[in-house]
Amino acid sequence: MRETGQLVDWNDERGFGFIRDARGERYFVHIKSIERITTRPFAGDRVNFEKGVDPQGRPRAIKVRILGANPAPSRQVRLREEPVANPRPFDMRPWLALVLTALLGYDLAMAAAPAWLGLAYLVMGALSFGLYAADKRYAQAGQWRIAEVTLHGVDLGFGIIGGLLGQSRLRHKTAKPGFALLTWCLACVQLLWLAGIAAGRITPEDLAVVANLFN
Question: Where is the CSD domain (predicted)?
Answer without folding.
Answer: 2-66
